[in-house]
Every structure is written in structure tokens, then in C-alpha cells.
Amino acid sequence: MLEGSCNCKAIRFDVRGNWKGASNCHCGQCRKQSGHVWASAFAPVTDIQISGDPRWYRSSDSAKRGFCPTFGAFLFWKHDAEDTMSFALGALDGPTGLHLEKHIFVADKGDYYDIADGLPQHDQ
């Protein structure tokens, strides 16, 4: 099981098994929301238990982003048509055993950095 929270602990979450897809997202929305890139993995919604009351921002016609209403931390991303939800790797407590698998939306990455870790890169 993975456990995580925002910095002020108003939102806590547990992820029970079946997580995958650890990636860095370089899309413009993730960069604006996080201040750089957003590292996340995903799991079935039924495997993620959230304590507290995150605020949900409708970031597009098909997806929403969950964040702490007190601290403002960007914690979750959910596509309407999927039964999975992404969660912030940076919000996890302690060792996770996870390793990044890929970079996504690299066509939108900032021009102020390079991706040089050898992981697969996907334009979208």
C-alpha cells in the first residue's frame, strides 16, 4: 500500500495495489499547476481511498484535477471516461519502490530544461 498527503495533511490518500504508469507529464496544464513537471502514477479509482475533501477543478471537457483546498497542492487527475485516477508521486510518504517509466507530453515541455534520463519520451 502507498500512503500520501498534501503538506498540511487536510487531504490524505491510500493506494492499495494495482498502481502503474509512473511518469513525468510535461503538458502545459501540469506545468502551470505544479510549477514544473508533474510526476504521477495511476490506479483503479476503487483502489484509491481519499480522506478529506479535495476540491476538483474541471481542467478540460473530459478531465478534472483534485487539489487540497487549504494548501493548494495538486494531488489527483481523473479522466471522465476512465476508471483509473492519477495521483501525485511527490505527495507519497516514505519509500515507494516506484520508478519512473516514461515522459509524456514532451512536445509541450518547457524550453528551460532537457530530458536526459534515457526513459521513453512520448509527444502526447
UniProtKB/TrEMBL annotation:
One Pfam family hit: GFA
Signal peptide annotation: none
A single GO molecular function term of this UniProt record: metal ion binding
Key word Zinc present: yes
Keyword Zinc attributed: yes
Record keywords: Lyase, Metal-binding, Zinc
Highest taxon, organism lineage: Bacteria
Domain CENP-V/GFA: from-to ranges: 2-114
Similarity section: Belongs to the Gfa family.
Protein name: GFA family protein
Originating organism: Sulfitobacter sediminilitoris
